[in-house]
Design goal:
The chain is mainly α. Helix content is about 65%, strand content about 0%. Helix 2 crosses helix 4 and helix 11 runs parallel beside helix 14. Its cofactor is Mg(2+).
Length: about 300
């Protein structure tokens, strides 16, 4: 480690700004064990990454993000978030060519039933696809899920599946619905960057973090960038609520499903906030103290920016 002095960062209280009500999936205890065992049995992760995997609590995130899902659908959401972890951890240790190859394996296994390259990632992805298609029509799967493979969008694409509904494209593409979707996705992404910054800055992995982007392009200090996220969060909440108020009536059936869908978007936002302070992922053993005080003690830098090697 270098001699950088430890400093403090005060987080904006995103919980206080967020009017959404959280809930928790009642199938968590049983399904969490099943899904994590499924990943462990795949042998797709090294021993070091297996240890990290069991600390991340993806099933806990899904219990917050999809509290309304029945047992089978909740299991699929857990499997998918866990599968994304396996994909990310596999590609993190690869060069550009290797990452491209791994991405192709992941996509082909999701979209081509006959594809099989014999790798653990392919096998797990095909097993996930089979479970998902049990309650998801092939055309819906292709149109809503397989077409959007990048962390938050496909996780949001599982909302309709987890609810057991399939809203028509013209409803989902209605401007107010799209504004709500975008604001919700931004809230999840911005809060994740805020909470993960301490770990990332310690490892020198800040290039894709919104805090570093704000500091670089707006000339802000670290605390100013965190404060900016708090102010922007208020804008995102207002955008979401204004769009929600402007939704028209489409008839009893569609209106009921739209209410369910908006509840599900809100569950993702507040659920992600709650999980961030329950899981060990961002704040470790200090998570409850950080939630109470909103003060983060920055870790000493372990790797300087630009010092990482591509292995």
């Amino acid at each position: 480690m270098d001699s950088q002095r430890t400093t403090l960062l005060t987080l904006p209280d995103l919980h206080a700004i967020t009017p959404f009500v959280g809930s928790f999936n009642p199938h968590y205890a049983k399904v969490a064990l099943e899904s994590s065992a499924w990943v462990d049995d795949s042998r797709a992760l090294s021993d070091k990454k297996r240890a990290f995997f069991f600390q991340t609590g993806h099933e806990l995130l899904c219990a917050h993000a999809y509290p309304y899902a029945d047992e089978e659908r909740y299991r699929v959401t857990c499997d998918f978030i866990n599968l994304l972890f396996v994909f990310d951890e596999t590609s993190d240790d690869q060069t550009g060519e290797g990452v491209s190859r791994t991405g192709s394996v992941f996509y082909n296994a999701l979209t081509k039933p006959e594809y099989d390259d014999g790798t653990p990632l392919c096998k797990s992805t095909k097993e996930f696809r089979q479970r998902l298609l049990k309650h998801c029509r092939p055309l819906t799967y292709q149109r809503r899920f397989a077409a959007s493979i990048a962390a938050s969008p496909p996780a949001f694409a599982l909302i309709g599946y987890a609810l057991g509904i399939d809203l028509p494209d013209d409803i989902l593409e209605y401007p107010a619905m799209m504004a709500m979707y975008s604001a919700s996705a931004d809230m999840v992404c911005w809060s994740n960057d805020l909470y993960s910054y301490n770990i990332e800055q310690a490892m020198g992995h800040t290039g894709n973090n919104i805090i570093t982007v704000l500091m670089t392009h707006k000339g802000l200090g670290l605390q100013e960038a965190a404060n900016y996220i708090g102010e922007h969060w208020k804008t995102l909440i207002k955008t979401y609520l204004d769009a929600k108020k402007s939704l028209p009536n489409w008839g009893v059936k569609i209106d009921h499903e739209v209410v369910q869908y908006t509840m599900a978007l809100e569950s993702w936002v507040i659920g992600n906030l709650n999980w961030s302070f329950e899981s060990l992922r961002y704040f470790g053993s200090t998570r409850h103290e950080v939630r109470r005080t909103l003060v983060v003690r920055l870790h000493l830098r372990q790797i300087e920016e630009g010092d990482e090697t591509d292995v």
